[in-house]
C-alpha cells in the first residue's frame, strides 16, 4: 500500500515560494507606506501655507519675520505655535514618521516670499514645486531639490 503525502522536496519548494511572495509583499507595503507619509507631508505643508496666508491677510506680515533670509524650523522659531495661537491652525502638524523631523520655514522676506519645506522619503515621488524650482529674487537664491524635498512657495509682499 502506497502512503499519501508530500515529499521533502515538494515541501521545500512550497515554503520557498511562500517566502518569496511574502518578501515581495513586504517591500510593496513599505513603499506604499513611504508614499503615504510623503502625501501626508505635502498635505501638511499646504495646510500650513493656507494658515500663513490667512495670517498674512490679518496681520500684514508672515509669522516670525524677524530676519529675512534665515532658516527657521518649528523648534527654534515656533512659527507653527504662532499660527496656532492666532487661531489659524488647530494643531501644529508633525512629520508622520518621526515627530523629531521638522517642517522648515525659510523666509526670504519682501517680494521673494517664503518656502515651506519637508524632506520626502521616496525619491521617485517627485515633488510639485508649485512653479518654483530655483532662480533668484532680490539677490536671494531660491532652490528646492526635487525628490529630496517638497517645497511650497508663498507669495511675496
* Spatial arrangement of strands, main beta sheet: 1-2-3-6
Helix content: 25-40%
Would you tell me the overall average pLDDT? 77
* Count, helices: 2
Structural class: alpha+beta
Annotation, overall tally of beta strands: 6
Radius of gyration: 24 Å
Coarse shape? elongated
- Unreliable residue runs: 129-133
The profile of the biggest β sheet is: 4 strands, antiparallel
Order of helices and strands: HEHEEEEE
Q: How many distinct folded domains? A: 1
What is the end-to-end distance? 91 Å
| Binned strand content | 15-25%
Structure overview:
The chain is an alpha+beta fold. It has one domain (39-154). It is 38% helix and 17% strand. It has 2 helices and 6 strands, in the order αβαβββββ. It has helices spanning 8-59, 79-85, and strands at 71-73, 104-107, 114-119, 134-137, 140-143, 149-154. A 4-stranded antiparallel β-sheet has the order 1-2-3-6, with helices on one face. It has a two-stranded antiparallel sheet with strand order 4-5. β2 and β3 (114-119) form a beta hairpin. It is elongated, with a radius of gyration of 24 Å. The model is unreliable at 129-133 (pLDDT under 50).
Which helices and strands, and how do they pair?
Blueprint: H1 8-59, E1 71-73, H2 79-85, E2 104-107, E3 114-119, E4 134-137, E5 140-143, E6 149-154
Antiparallel strand pairs: 1-2, 2-3, 3-6, 4-5
Amino acid at each position: 500500500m502506497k502512503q499519501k503525502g508530500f515529499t521533502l522536496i515538494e515541501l521545500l519548494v512550497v515554503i520557498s515560494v511562500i517566502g518569496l511572495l511574502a518578501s515581495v509583499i513586504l517591500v510593496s507595503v513599505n513603499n506604499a507606506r513611504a508614499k503615504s507619509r510623503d502625501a501626508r507631508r505635502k498635505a501638511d505643508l499646504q495646510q500650513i501655507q493656507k494658515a500663513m496666508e490667512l495670517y498674512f491677510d490679518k496681520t500684514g506680515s508672515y509669522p516670525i519675520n524677524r530676519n529675512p533670509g534665515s532658516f527657521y524650523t518649528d523648534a527654534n522659531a515656533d512659527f507653527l505655535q504662532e499660527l496656532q495661537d492666532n487661531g489659524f491652525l488647530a494643531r501644529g502638524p508633525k512629520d508622520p514618521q518621526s515627530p523629531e523631523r521638522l517642517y522648515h520655514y525659510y523666509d526670504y522676506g519682501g517680494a521673494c516670499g517664503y518656502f515651506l519645506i519637508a524632506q520626502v522619503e521616496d525619491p521617485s515621488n517627485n515633488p510639485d514645486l508649485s512653479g518654483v524650482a530655483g532662480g533668484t529674487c532680490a539677490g536671494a537664491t531660491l532652490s528646492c531639490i526635487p525628490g529630496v524635498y517638497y517645497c511650497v512657495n508663498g507669495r511675496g509682499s
